[in-house]
Structure formats: C-alpha cells, structure tokens
Amino acid sequence: MSFNGIKASFLAFAIIGLSSLAIAQDAASSARSITVIGQGEASGPPDRASINAGVNTLAPSVVESSEQNQAIIERIMAALKQEGIEDADIQTADYSVWPEQQHDPRGTGEITITGYRVNNTVRINVKDIERLGNLLAAVTNAGATSIHGVGFSVKDTVALEDRARAAAMADARARAEALAGLAGVKLGKVMNISTSPGGSYPMPMMGGGREMAMSASVPGISSGQLSINVQVQVSYEIR
C-alpha cells in the first residue's frame, strides 16, 4: 500500500472515531437530564353568560300553534331589547313542530292526533353578567315556558392562561429540584419545554327552578369561578 493510501485510511479511521465520540457525548449529554410534568391552574370570576329561553305551545292546528308561539316569541324579543340585548346576541337554537297523539284506550291500535306542538328556543348571549337575573325575570314574565343551558364564560382568557402557565412552570421547577436533591445532583439549564393546555370551564347553573323563574322576582344566580388548567413537560440538564 502506498503512503497516500495509508494516509487516507488513517484519516478515515480518525473521522469515524471522532464521529463515534461525538455521538457518545451527545447520548451521555441527553441522558444526564431530568424530565418532569408541572401542573398549573388559574381561576377568575366569569364576565359573560348565555341562556336558552324556549316557548312551547299546543293548539288544534299547526297554524294556530305557530301563531301563538310567534306571539310569545315577539314579546320575549321586545323584553330582550328593553334589557339592552342586541339582535346579534340572539340566535334560534331550536325550532320544531310535532303532533300530539293519543292512543285508543280500548287497545285497538288507533291513534288520534289531538293537536300540534311548536317549540321555539333562542340562545341569548349576555355581555353584562350583572344583569342576568333581571334578564331571566323579564324573559319568563314575557312568556318563556322553559329556561335551560345557563352557562358562564370569560371574554378574555389570556390573563388566566398566563397565570396558569406561570404556575405550571413553577410547579415543574419545584418537582425537578426535589428529584435533583434526592439524586444528589444540581439542575442546569432548561433543555426542552412542551405544553398542553387542558382548559376547564365549569358552568354553574342558575339557582332555583321553574317556579322561581315564573314569579316577578329576580331569580338567584350563582356564577362561581371559572378555571383554566395548563400542563407543561420540562427537561432540565443535570450536573
């Protein structure tokens, strides 16, 4: 073998050796780390609400039932406008018509239609949560036969999310320091962070029942607190 051939072979072995050493160092470096999961939660009062108000009517014909239903809906719409609710915050959530049937008590199998029911439900977004009780009273006094789906939310969740992330990072650091102390090592720089928001928005319901809502008094409302949960996975270098 010529001198040039020997030199080329030597260089090839040197490159392979250095590459193997770099790989081994990278593996050792990545192995010397602590990975933990931190949990963070932030809570705050809701500032928005939404409700479903429905009207259910029964009449001998579809036309009569629809007309009766529409008359009540129009009174509800007028009440909503008086309470400052804009048209953009009112949306039809359900409209259905079905026959009211009666089976022959003699067991003949004969079915008689005794009337027609019309149900019209509107979804109302309430931007001023302080007026929710008065709004519910106004809607029921206007003729709503059902109130359901009362829910609460926060218009701007950024502040809650920031607080939840900060709490999750602090929790991750505390967990990592505890593990490092048990292992007799010290934490170094943060090597990797990943997050997965686990937003949770409990929906407290209105106090009282249909009987309370039917009266002229303002229904009791418990808006409670809404919370956001954030989870982070953090890897720390150890030394």
Written description of the protein model:
The chain folds into 3 domains: 1-31; 33-46 and 156-207 and 220-239, Protein of unknown function (DUF541), domain 1 (Translation Initiation Factor IF3, 2-Layer Sandwich); 48-153, Alpha-Beta Plaits, CATH 3.30.70. The protein contains 5 helices and 7 strands; from the N terminus they run αββαββαβαβαβ. The chain is of the alpha+beta class. Helix 2 (62-82) packs antiparallel against helix 3. The chain is 38% helix and 36% strand. Strand 3 and strand 4 form a beta hairpin. The model is unreliable at 6-25 and 202-216 (pLDDT under 50). It has a 4-stranded antiparallel beta sheet. A 3-stranded antiparallel beta sheet has the order 1-7-6.
- What is the tally of helical segments? 5
CATH topology of the largest domain: Alpha-Beta Plaits
* Unreliable parts: 6-25, 202-216
Helix content: 25-40%
Overall domain count = 3
Topology order in helix (H) and strand (E) letters: HEEHEEHEHEHE
Based on CA inertia axes, which overall geometry fits?
A: elongated
Share of β-strand residues = 35-45%
Question: What is the mean predicted local confidence, pLDDT?
Answer: 83
Q: Could you describe the largest sheet, including whether it forms a barrel?
A: 4 strands, antiparallel
Radius of gyration (CA) equals: 33 Å
- Structural class, by secondary structure, is alpha+beta
| The CATH top-level class label of the largest domain | Alpha Beta
Give the end-to-end Cα distance, rounded to a whole number of Å: 48 Å
Biggest sheet: strands side by side, in what order?
3-4-2-5
CATH superfamily of the largest domain: Protein of unknown function (DUF541), domain 2
Q: Supply the CATH architecture of the largest domain.
A: 2-Layer Sandwich
Count of extended strands? 7
